[in-house]
Amino acid sequence: MSGRLAGKVALVVGAGQTPGETIGNGRATAILFAREGARVVAVDRRLESAEETVRIIEGEGCEAVAFEADATREAEAAAAVGACVERFGRLDVLHNNVGIGGGDAGPAHVVEEDWDRILAVNLKSVVFPCKAALPVMRRQQSGAITNVSSIAAVCSTGIVAYKTSKAGVNAYTQSLAIGNAKHGIRANVIMPGLMDTPMAIEGISTARGIPREDLVRQRDAQVPLGGKMGTAWDVAHAALFLASDEAGFITGVALPVDGGQSARIG
Description:
This protein is of the alpha/beta class. 47% of the residues lie in helices and 14% in strands. The chain has nine helices and seven strands.
């Protein structure tokens, strides 16, 4: 690797993953950041999953620590940032990867409980880590924040709570970028499309009661570029670019990583 994050400290929120045959976005991003020289704080509400990510990183000779926190709780998000600064003395990169979508429906059928749960998780898990990180980054007069949204924010979809929450992440990040540019802080969004990750594939196949292979085939067929879903590494490489100094003049953008899907149906 080329050391694109050498000397930097990165906090990855949602660095664990649900069990599955592939790798999740948060874990892949944490691993890639470490490979590129960052010291990584892997945060997850399931400590054992964050620790598994750390073991992979350490097995490659890189540096990482695990921290247990529910990013939807302000005090726990603040504790994660505090632990990062206490351990490493700074925070250069904040990557927010938490998100859920199960139980959603269209506008005529969405249930209040599901609406509240999805919006709370998908928005609070971005807002509270950012709130905690901003004073640190402002003191440094530098920092890069990347929030993971979805092309559902800009594409037609029947899952209204998820769509609304991800559109909210985009809008929040735009405000974050403009409000903190004077402090040297950049804030951007990654909008993944159809990805071959455990949360998507194992989660949806279980929820719908269809074989994993059938779901993969259906999702692959919807992707214009190569007729195949992306992987967590596609998201991780986009995150690496946005976190690196190569993106030093980029802030307030929403970057689709979707094989052209949003260009076709947006």
